[in-house]
Design brief:
By secondary structure, this protein is an alpha+beta fold. It is built from ten helices and nine strands.
C-alpha cells in the first residue's frame, strides 16, 4: 500500500472519533498541513469526508452509504458454506446454518452426515423454535423486551420429556445461552437426536446466524457430541470474522487447526431433529 493511500485511510478512523480541524489531522498523521489538506480535499471530492462551516472535517455521507450497501450485499450463507463443509469433513455429522426471520428460525444451509442416517431437516424449513439450539442462540441475542415478548407469545409443545415447558423456562434458558455464548440440544424434539451450536456475529457484535452439529445417539452419545463444542465455536468465530471483515479472510480449514478438546458443559436444553435411513 502506498504511503499516500495509507495516510488517507488513517484519516477515516480519526474522524470516526469526531470532527477534527486541519491542524489536528496533520498532527495525528505526522505530516505538514499542506499534505493533510491535500488528502482531505481528495477524500472530500469522493464524499468520504465533509467540511463543516466551522472548518472542521467529519465523515461524509458517501462513506455511510457504501458501508450500508456492503452490509446489505453480504450473504452469510455464501460466506459460511465452505466453513460448514470443512466442519462436516472434520466431524462427519450433519451441520446446519440458521437465521431468524419474521418470527421464525429457518435453516438456510445444511451439510449432510457421512453416516447412514440423515436428518429430516430441510433448507428453508422452520425449526422447532422452543427447543432448537440454533433458535436459542438467535433469540437469546434479541433485546430483553423483544426476547420476552417472543417467549410469551410462543406455544410450547411437549415433544419429549426434555422439551421446554413454558415461557419462564425458555427465558431462563435464553439467559444462560446469552451468558455462555453457545447452546445445546439434547433430545428436546426427539429423544435420540442431540445437537450443539454456536453464534455467528456481524461487525456490530449482534448474532446474524447460528451454526450447529447434530447427530443421533446411534452414532455418538451426547457426551461425545459435546466434545465437539470447541470445534463448533471456532468454526462460528471464523465465519464471524470473515462476515464482519474484522480480520483478513481465513480458509475454512484454519478453524480446524487444533483438535477439539473434551469438555463437560452443563446441558441447556434440546432441539428438533429427526432421522431417517438412507434409501
Amino acid at each position: 500500500m502506498s504511503q499516500t493511500v495509507d495516510r488517507a485511510l488513517s484519516i477515516l478512523p480519526l474522524l470516526a472519533e469526531g470532527p477534527a480541524n486541519l491542524e489536528q489531522v496533520a498532527t495525528r498523521l505526522g505530516v505538514h498541513k499542506s499534505t493533510a489538506l491535500r488528502l482531505l480535499r481528495t477524500l472530500h471530492e469522493h464524499g468520504m469526508v465533509y467540511r463543516q462551516e466551522d472548518q472542521r472535517y467529519r465523515l461524509g455521507a458517501r462513506l455511510f452509504a457504501l458501508a450500508q450497501q456492503a452490509v446489505e450485499n453480504l450473504d452469510v450463507r455464501e460466506i459460511a458454506h465452505p466453513h460448514l463443509v470443512a466442519l462436516n469433513e472434520q466431524c462427519g455429522h450433519t451441520v446446519h446454518l440458521a437465521v431468524y426471520e419474521e418470527d421464525e428460525v429457518l435453516y438456510i444451509d445444511k451439510v449432510e452426515s457421512r453416516y447412514p442416517v440423515r436428518m429430516y431437516s430441510r433448507i428453508g424449513k422452520p425449526v422447532a423454535i422452543t427447543v432448537a439450539a440454533v433458535a436459542k442462540l438467535l433469540l437469546a441475542d434479541l433485546p430483553e423486551p423483544e426476547r420476552r415478548a417472543v417467549a410469551e407469545r410462543l406455544t410450547y409443545p411437549a415433544y419429549t420429556a426434555r422439551s421446554t415447558p413454558n415461557a419462564a423456562a425458555f427465558l431462563k434458558e435464553l439467559a444462560t445461552v446469552r451468558e455462555q455464548g453457545w447452546a445445546t440440544d439434547l433430545g428436546g424434539h426427539e429423544e435420540s437426536i442431540n445437537c450443539v451450536g454456536a453464534p455467528i456475529r456481524g461487525a456490530d457484535g449482534r448474532v446474524v446466524a447460528a451454526c450447529s452439529v447434530s447427530a443421533p445417539n446411534v452414532v455418538v452419545t451426547a457426551d461425545e457430541l459435546l466434545t465437539l463444542l470447541p470445534l463448533v465455536r471456532r468454526t462460528a468465530e471464523a465465519i464471524s470474522r470473515e462476515y464482519s471483515g474484522s480480520a483478513p479472510a481465513r480458509g475454512p480449514h484454519d478453524a480446524m487447526a487444533e483438535a477439539p478438546g473434551a469438555v463437560k458443559p452443563e446441558a441447556v436444553r434440546s432441539d428438533k431433529r429427526t432421522k431417517e435411513p438412507l434409501s
